[in-house]
């Protein structure tokens, strides 16, 4: 039997979390070292999976493992990745690795300033890793029950991470709001999942949660039209779809840096991915029936998110709303249900994940040193932290969709696909490109250039080596994907071909 | 009459009785301050009984023994094992409870009650059933009011006694009517009589209502739930834990057997009545749990809500439905015992069960904080803990039976649940003690508590991840009813 790489990836963080909780509480450095080791291991394995998939020109579901879990109900531990999910597994590995690096934490004796996580790092990394296990599990699961199982695991640690280590002013409110939104979404989707299970079982005689089986179930059109909305929107809440996006910026702002990175970088993709996999792929006719509604919601999110981001004065709120806007592009791509749109959505999930993780990482570094995120109170940062400034600018270029960066590779096909489907929506949505460029450039100027306010002078220090490693990793990925789209696009296309096949258009 | 099957069918009960006798003999020889060690004897003895019963006493095909009063099947057996497990853990929790654990009677009452529960789950005859219910209840009345010097405990015991006596009288009246109409007290003979359609429907509907009153009290279904918060709050905490888990599960075992065997083919739609009761119970329990500031009262209301969730599985009237109820009870016993265990351990040191007493708990005792987190997330229905799988099974059974509206009610309720369970975790993990010096106020765990809590937490995780074996036992229990 081949090496069970996917289950090792999924369970590495969980095992690391258990080990972490067994380390005595005072041993903070050891806890951090264990966390970094586990994150590196998971990153290398997910990178290996990605490279294998890419270089071997694989198609369909690969690295498949299946273990019977509860045969009586047709539940199995069934892992496998396709062209859609392999980049997302890598994304999770990258965000996990960089998240650990920038949370490492240092305590400066002279100035009594601290960065990263100082309070109970052991628990912090343990909860973060439980979350990571859930995320890996969702991306790799081919069993609907297990997908749901891991999905819920990815939700609840967020509450603890935000409420314990979050921004003191809004953390209690934001953490509860986020948890309730996500929980409501997921349980609504659960009803749909159960309905699919029984209906498929009745018609085929095989009761199974296996998604490969359910893809062939052939649900009736009325069933699909009825259940598509709860399933799709239930999961898409986590994808930040308008009008259910409200939890997301609040959550971003209240969360500590590494959690913001996970939240915007990976968790929101989780929602979009689950909505795609369970909603669109298992209920394709329902998707075709309702695609206009998704397109409408997504177009509103794209434009509205961009405008709201434009007027923010808090750096994290700005990035939070820009995430709503960019995730709207993913949803827009999904709603086209055509080759270009879906490919763009798949690439955008990866590109936005890396980009927004970088944004939040840099914002966290600034906040740790200046203790403010208010844009008017910042300025001249490139003098003390040039490296962070370069990183942020690269992220900004990706965000604007500049050619040569991964953002362009993602957004161009999306707009192409939308144009094919509804040209008017493409025109309206493209307003966001201008607004995004405006707020990104204005804010880069305000935060990184100009004069540093007097209050901050003398307090600011450069970022650490670990921070630099994290920024470099993220930037290289974005530039690499931008210069060599063949690193990701053909792979996503193989996943899209399968989706189109299910939709009956190819 | 005493065939080997007959002997096996009451093997756990017999062994518990022997253990009780041993306790009675040993107790006078121990000095007052060493009587706490009877808890080790009880817990260890029950553990041995558990192992022996599982090794030797597993049921084969369902058999009637003792003049058709006991049915030796998986339903009774699985529940019996759950009760023995619960009693063993409760004995450990009792050991270091002030003014309770040093008295030998408390362990003997616990054993007596466990015998009753085990018989409740396997009784196949109205008379045996009633005797078993009383054997369970009377020791519990005494246990609830065990701390004589404490007014609240006395009140708790007395309140429980009055409510219990009242509702069991109503239920007994229902039993007598059943006998009057059919001329038999055997549950399976009754089922045949109903299948043949000998009895007029409206009359039986009245009987069903009388039975629901009695059993609803046992499992605290609204509107017969009023006793629960007061009794749980006043009783010694380990006893509250036992009441809310094993005693409730015993009630569900009886409900499952009575309604699914006797009334399954009955023309009147009692399922809808139960569905409404279930919805109301969940909603009332959860909404009343929201404003609580005392953890024991909150857990009381939450246990009312959980009775409502478990009821969904009964409403489904299917194999999966019963299997999901049995699984739900197993998950709930382990989870809720862990929750009460934390309350016992904290209450012993801090001397209060208010939320405020839990401030800074995760710093005072990280392990206790984690155990509480696991228990409460499991109660809230989050994976990878037992509560998640249990809820999904129950909801799946209801969707299969076409009760989608009930699942929607259940889901809305579990959202309310997430809110108040996480709210408590905020006290544990976020808020700090007034002097912010938690290091100086550690909460030490005595050995029995540490053992019991670790076993429970492993159980919560095991049931929530490797659920296949437990589900197949639950399924075996369900198959015996159909």
Describe the structure concisely.
The complex is a heterodimer of chains A (506) and B (482). By secondary structure, chain A is mainly α. Helix content of chain A is 73%, strand content 4%.
Describe this structure as you would to a colleague:
Chain A has helices at residues 5-22, 28-55, 85-102, 121-140, 144-165, 171-204, 211-214, 221-236, 247-254, 257-280, 284-311, 315-336, 339-370, 381-384, 386-400, 406-421, 423-448, 465-483, 489-503; strands at 62-70, 75-81, 106-108, 113-115. In chain A, a hairpin with a 4-residue loop joins strand 3 (106-108) and strand 4. Chain A has one domain (5-503). By secondary structure, chain A is mostly helical. A two-stranded antiparallel ribbon of chain A has the order 1-2. The mean pLDDT of chain A is 88. Chain B has helices spanning 4-9, 11-26, 38-56, 74-95, 104-122, 126-144, 151-182, 187-195, 201-219, 227-234, 237-262, 270-289, 295-315, 319-350, 361-364, 366-380, 386-400, 404-429, 447-465, 468-479; strands at 63-65, 70-72. Chain B has a two-stranded antiparallel sheet. Chain B has a domain at 278-482. In chain B, strand 1 (63-65) and strand 2 form a beta hairpin. In chain B, helix 16 (366-380) packs antiparallel against helix 18 (404-429). Chain B is built from 20 helices and 2 strands. By secondary structure, chain B is mainly α. The radius of gyration of chain B is 21 Å and the shape is globular. Classes of the chains: A mainly alpha (506), B mainly alpha (482). Chain A binds chain B through residues 21, 25, 68-73, 123, 145, 148-150, 152-153, 155-156, 159-160, 163-164, 172, 176, 179-180, 183-184, 187-188, 190-191, 194-195, 197-198, and chain B through 362, 366, 370, 373, 377, 382-384, 388, 392, 395-396, 399-400, 404, 407-408, 411, 414-415, 418-419, 422-423, 425-426, 429-430, 467-468, 471-472, 475.
